[in-house]
């Protein structure tokens, strides 16, 4: 088994503590762990607790416990986004100094279908002297010519003409909270992440993150978006549609279900501990075998 830290590869898992892990999140965690360990790299953990209204009491601890029960041990200490305000503020200051931000006090009703500002807040320019009196969000001006390109392990060639389709997005919300797009970019850079492996439900966030990396002078990691797990009726498994939480008492069964959904070789019956299952999975990890549409079998959910 390759040992952690022998290569420059640095991967991460970055759950939001909005609820317990479900099989879909285990798939992302496991794929990211397998990619990192297979490369002999490090695998870091970040708890994205920047949105208190959406958080569930006890979820962060439950996630840490659940990962450990599944043998997915991380390197270094956990990074908690709730403790990173100073880093986010300096990134906002850098964006502002570069002339990339504008204040937008639009109400939800005034925004366009993509959540874009259509009232010309951007044209009104910098934050001062016309800083609105009412609460305002900070948005990034997307240059009209900006286009994001990358080669994605599972999604292939990506070409997103962001400037032509979306001209601005929020980096600090009206309620004062930092937006996910900002925090994730600042922390991927701070943790030296070279490879982001996560669910394809976040694919359309990547162009925004690549723009922020460019504006902030950060290197862009490589991206690998794992296809989203669905149930047999084609419904995406997510916290929003109440995917059942993983049973922490059945980690071996959960790992087997996750490996099957990832199209991986099925571990022999005698591999009964999580350690034995993970060692087998690592030795036989085959990213090309991940199906375009992983489906969970009925037996995998409690
Ligand atoms: N915190 C995000 C989530 O739980 C994932 C962020 C990421 O992997 O970039 O959906």
How would you characterize the overall build of this protein?
The chain is α/β, with parallel strands linked by helices and 302 residues long. The protein folds into two domains: 10-81 and 186-296, Rossmann fold (3-Layer(aba) Sandwich); 86-180, Glutamyl-tRNA Synthetase, Domain 3 (Glutamyl-tRNA Synthetase, domain 3), CATH 3.90.800.10. 29% of the residues lie in helices and 15% in strands. The protein contains eight helices and ten strands. It has helices at 23-38, 59-69, 85-97, 162-165, 180-190, 206-216, 251-261, 274-283; strands at 10-13, 42-47, 79-80, 101-104, 137-141, 148-152, 156-160, 168-172, 195-199, 222-226. It has a three-stranded parallel beta sheet with strand order 1-2-3, covered by helices on one side. Strands 4-5-8 form a three-stranded antiparallel beta sheet. Strands 6-7 form a two-stranded antiparallel ribbon. α6 links the parallel β9 (195-199) and β10 (222-226). α1 crosses α7, α5 packs across α6 and α7 (251-261) packs parallel to α8. The chain is elongated and about 65 Å long. The model has no long low-confidence stretch (mean pLDDT 90). The protein binds glutamic acid.
